[in-house]
User: Fold Histidine triad nucleotide-binding protein from Micromonospora radicis.
Amino acid sequence: MSTPDCLFCRIVAGEIPATVVRETATTLAFRDIDPKAPVHVLVIPKEHYADVATLGQGDPALAGEVLATAAAVAEDEGLLGDGFRLLFNTGAYGGQEVFHAHAHLLGGAPLGPMLARSVA
Ligand code: AMP
Ligand code: ZN
Assistant:
């Protein structure tokens, strides 16, 4: 199922170009257009889910396939030795801007603390 005005659905449909690094039957991984680390790849389910909460509850197997693709890209990009960060921004507090579930795979340099500042 695709949502016509969704940016990432349009990338899946080939209507907007992206630098794809891995594709499976159900997932797509492409480089972030505004990278925040030497490696910054977005990993998405091809099917539209607004965020990781609806994806994880709606289709846990597909969520697992997103993780498997992220792990394969991490290996391809040489991140397994030094490590990496995998995160899903979700909703307003999470700072989500594109409402098609996506994992950010970040690595290639020390990434610093999990948050820029503590909000506890
Ligand atoms: P988020 O804030 O978690 O929703 O992240 C959205 C991400 O999508 C940001 O890191 C953007 O840089 C990235 N982005 C936006 N448009 C594109 C695009 N056309 N191709 C690749 N990445 C994009
Ligand atoms: Zn979408």
